[in-house]
Design brief:
One of its GO terms (molecular function) is tau-protein kinase activity. By secondary structure, the protein is α+β, with helices and mostly antiparallel strands. A 4-stranded antiparallel β-sheet has the order 1-2-4-3, covered by helices on one side. Strands 5-8 form a two-stranded antiparallel sheet. Strand 1 and strand 2 form a beta hairpin. The protein contains 7 helices and 8 strands. The chain folds into 2 domains: 69 residues, Phosphorylase Kinase, domain 1 (2-Layer Sandwich); 141 residues, Orthogonal Bundle (Transferase(Phosphotransferase), domain 1).
Length: 224
C-alpha cells in the first residue's frame, strides 16, 4: 500500500510551475510498489512529448519517492466536462487530435498506457492536452499480449473485461474512443455498474439511452 500527496512549486531550471508528488510506502511488499511503481518510474523518464506530462526529476529513498513533474494549471478533462457539459465539435476534435498524437508517440517507443480516461488527461494554461498518470503503463513490443486487468471499467475494452489476452495499443485506442464519446455527449457510453451487461452492450454496439439521444442532437466529430 502507498500514500501520496502533492504540492505546487516553482522549478528553477525553466522558471515554470511544477507538481511535486510524494509517494510514501506504507506496506513495503504491496503489489503497487513491487510491480507497478518501478515500471512507471522507468517509463516516465523516457517520455518527451508536447502532449504528455513532463517529469523533470525523480528522487527516491527506501520509503519515499518524490516526483517533480509538469503542473497542468487547467485541471483535468473530466472536471472541465462536469463544469461546462459536453465539449463542442471543434474543441473535441482539437483535444482528440492531441490525444492521438500522444498515443502514436507511445506506440513508436513501444509504451502502452492502459489507464486512459478523462481524469488522466490534463490541460495546461494554453488549453493543450497533457496525458499523465502512467501507473499501469508498460513496455509492450509488437506482438506482445497482456492478461493484467488495468484501468477503469467504464473505459476498458471488452477483451479486458472478459479477462482475455489483449494488445496494449488496441485497448488504448478503445479507451481513447470512450474519451471522445464523453467529450461529445457529456455522458458515458455504458453503465459500468454491471460489468456482464456492459460487455453485452459493447459487443452489440448499444449505448446508454441518454447518450444515444445526445448523439442524435450533435454532428459527428469528423464531419466538416
Amino acid at each position: 500500500m502507498s500514500h501520496s500527496k502533492s504540492s505546487i512549486n516553482g522549478y528553477p531550471k525553466n522558471n515554470s510551475s511544477l507538481r511535486i508528488l510524494l509517494v510514501q510506502f506504507l506496506w513495503s511488499q504491496s503489489d503497487f510498489i513491487i510491480r507497478f511503481l518501478p515500471r512507471e518510474l522507468d517509463i516516465v523518464q523516457r517520455l518527451h512529448h508536447q502532449n504528455i506530462v513532463d517529469v523533470f526529476e525523480i528522487i527516491q529513498s527506501e520509503s519515499i519517492v518524490c516526483i517533480a513533474q509538469e503542473y497542468a494549471a487547467g485541471g483535468d478533462l473530466l472536471k472541465k466536462i462536469k463544469k461546462q457539459g459536453r465539449i463542442n465539435e471543434d474543441h473535441s476534435r482539437f483535444y482528440f487530435r492531441q490525444l492521438v498524437e500522444a498515443l502514436m508517440y507511445l506506440k513508436k517507443i513501444e509504451v502502452v498506457h492502459r489507464d486512459l480516461k478523462c481524469e488522466n488527461l490534463f490541460l495546461d494554461l494554453c488549453d493543450n492536452i497533457k496525458l499523465g498518470d502512467f501507473g499501469f503503463s508498460r513496455i509492450m513490443h509488437n506482438g506482445d499480449e497482456s492478461h493484467t486487468f488495468c484501468g477503469s471499467r467504464a473505459y476498458v475494452a471488452p477483451e479486458v473485461l472478459r479477462s482475455r489476452s489483449y494488445s496494449g495499443f488496441t485497448v488504448d485506442l478503445w479507451s481513447a474512443g470512450v474519451v471522445l464519446f464523453v467529450m461529445v455527449t457529456g455522458l458515458m457510453p455504458y453503465d459500468d455498474r454491471y460489468p456482464k451487461k456492459m460487455v453485452e452492450k459493447q459487443m452489440q454496439h448499444r449505448y446508454t439511452s441518454r447518450a444515444v439521444m445526445k448523439i442524435t442532437m450533435c454532428a459527428p466529430v469528423g464531419q466538416q
